């Protein structure tokens, strides 16, 4: 005897099905179509699992042709009928169900009781449950969150060094609060428009992750300010990469920094612009070392204001060099090597060199009798060549000796 379609929800309810998924039932019943409910090809199941058994053999536009099945198959099907619920033993295989929407009411399905969290389940069902470990409420590393955070995963793909960021206080918490699509993606697009290359984004964000929290309109305003000061797009891109915190500074602060260097060094607008292009961290770093070095050059080392101007426009880095290094280098070059101020001014790169390197090479030239730094005399050796050439070239072109001789000499010093 065929089971009336109207009784199917009630039959499900009377069988006390424990794992009914209302969403699955809707997806099967909401589409109008002609279907066949198969009954005799189901594996042996208990009556309590009829829902699983019934829908496992549910097929669209398929008929079971009992007349074409072999006798052995028929016998198996007959045996299988014994395991079916008694109320379905007489169910014919060609029971056609057309348009479930018109026969079954969704209200009847929604009347089924919800699954209780206290409901007992079998051991077989229990071992199939995969429970992810909870996120730690407190952690000293971002590694615990990478697997579940899309933001962290995409930052890693960009080349961001999370092991460096997690050392900074509050950085990990900040990144976990950000949404990649809504918060980070627009900043990345902005940086690319500024001129930051794809392979530079990782290193940039590792140094300045705070920019991810900046307002996009403020960032655009700061770029527009630099453009108004005749910084080209290439210059701005170079400055942003070399000084990652540049765009975190407000327009007023950027303007004050440019004004400081123009006034303190007495430079014109073009030379001031070239100065910060070559060393953009002058705009983002502390001004105290710069002020102190200016006093050192004038008061301790005895350089004139115009000489300082010439040196810093040639080698801007000497504005941020340590006071100790400046005084040691000048003391040896001026007082030991007897090189006057006006020659040092022509070769300010000497302040960027290691004092030990200058001492070793000067001592070797003195030993060979070739330590001659006066441009008015023969065999003149410039400070530039003294400090910039590699050892092999220095020995061959300046000292006129072999590298082995230079290395042997250093062992005796």
From TrEMBL:
It comes from the Eukaryota. Signal peptide: none annotated. Its main location: mitochondrion. The gene is MTERF3. Binds promoter DNA and regulates initiation of transcription. Required for normal mitochondrial transcription and translation, and for normal assembly of mitochondrial respiratory complexes. Required for normal mitochondrial function. Maintains 16S rRNA levels and functions in mitochondrial ribosome assembly by regulating the biogenesis of the 39S ribosomal subunit. Belongs to the mTERF family. InterPro entries: MTERF (IPR003690), MTERF_sf (IPR038538). It is found in: Mitochondrion. One of its GO terms (cellular component) is mitochondrial matrix. The keyword Iron does not apply. GO terms for molecular function: transcription cis-regulatory region binding. Keywords: Mitochondrion, Transcription, Transcription regulation, Transit peptide. It comes from Sarcophilus harrisii. This is Transcription termination factor 3, mitochondrial. GO terms for biological process: mitochondrial ribosome assembly; mitochondrial transcription; negative regulation of DNA-templated transcription.
């Amino acid at each position: 005897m065929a089971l009336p379609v109207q009784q199917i929800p009630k039959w499900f309810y009377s069988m006390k099905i424990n794992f009914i998924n209302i969403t699955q039932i809707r997806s099967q019943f909401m589409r109008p179509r002609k279907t066949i409910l198969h009954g005799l090809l189901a594996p042996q199941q208990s009556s309590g699992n009829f829902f699983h058994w019934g829908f496992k053999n549910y097929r669209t536009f398929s008929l079971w042709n009992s007349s074409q099945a072999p006798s052995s198959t028929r016998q198996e099907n007959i045996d299988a009928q014994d395991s079916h619920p008694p109320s379905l033993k007489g169910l014919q295989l060609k029971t056609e169900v057309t348009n479930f929407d018109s026969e079954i009411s969704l209200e009847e399905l929604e009347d089924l009781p919800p699954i209780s969290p206290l409901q007992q389940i079998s051991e077989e069902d229990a071992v199939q449950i995969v429970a992810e470990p909870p996120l730690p409420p407190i952690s000293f590393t971002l590694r615990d969150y990478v697997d579940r955070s899309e933001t962290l995963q995409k930052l890693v793909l960009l080349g961001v060094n999370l092991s460096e960021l997690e050392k900074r206080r509050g950085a990990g918490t900040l990144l976990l609060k950000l949404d990649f699509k809504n918060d980070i993606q627009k900043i990345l697009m902005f940086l690319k428009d500024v001129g930051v290359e794809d392979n530079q984004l990782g290193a940039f964000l590792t140094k300045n992750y705070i920019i991810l929290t900046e307002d996009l309109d403020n960032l655009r305003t700061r770029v527009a300010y630099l453009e108004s000061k005749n910084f080209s797009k290439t210059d701005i891109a170079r400055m942003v990469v070399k000084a990652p915190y540049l765009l975190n500074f407000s327009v007023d602060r950027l303007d004050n920094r440019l004004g400081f260097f123009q006034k303190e060094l007495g430079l014109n607008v073009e030379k001031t612009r070239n100065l910060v292009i070559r060393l953009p961290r002058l705009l983002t770093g502390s001004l105290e070392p710069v002020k102190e070095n200016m006093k050192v050059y004038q008061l301790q080392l005895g350089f004139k204001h115009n000489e300082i101007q010439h040196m810093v426009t040639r080698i801007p880095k000497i504005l941020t060099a340590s006071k100790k290094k400046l005084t040691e280098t000048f003391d040896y070059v001026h007082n030991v090597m007897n090189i006057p101020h006006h020659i040092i001014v022509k070769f300010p790169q000497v302040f960027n060199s290691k004092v030990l390197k200058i001492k070793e090479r000067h001592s070797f030239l003195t030993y060979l009798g070739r330590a001659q730094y006066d441009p008015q005399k023969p065999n003149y050796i410039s400070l530039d060549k003294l400090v910039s050439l590699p050892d092999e070239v220095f020995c061959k072109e300046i000292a006129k000796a072999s590298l082995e001789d230079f290395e042997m000499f250093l062992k005796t010093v």
